[in-house]
Amino acid sequence: MSETLDWARTLVVLGRDEIGDEDAAATLHILLKYQSDIERATKELLGRSRPVA
User: Fold this and answer.
1) Does pTM surpass 0.70?
2) Nearest-5° Cα angle at 7, 22 to 17
3) How many domains does the structure of the chain reveal?
């Protein structure tokens, strides 16, 4: 639950009142804890893996 609130706060700070796939993928690290989950979700959203930063 706290991760969801952190994610929502981040989107507000970024000035987003709508979120697209790219925005969601760019902020998944706030919502998800494990890199493997982030990569899996990114692949589902964008159809590709995002390079590890």
Assistant:
1) no
2) 60
3) 1
DSSP, collapsed to helix, strand or coil, labels residue 2 as helix
Domain assignment of residue 51, yes or no: no
Host domain of residue 37: 2-46
- Asked if the structure places residue 52 within a domain, the reply is no
CB count in 10 Å sphere of residue 3: 11
Averaged pLDDT score across all residues of the chain = 85
User: Please, is 35 exposed, middle or buried when counting C-beta atoms within 10 Å of its C-beta (0-12, 13-18, 19+)?
Assistant: exposed
Does the pLDDT of residue 26 top 60, yes or no? yes
Q: Rounded mean pLDDT of 11-17?
A: 88
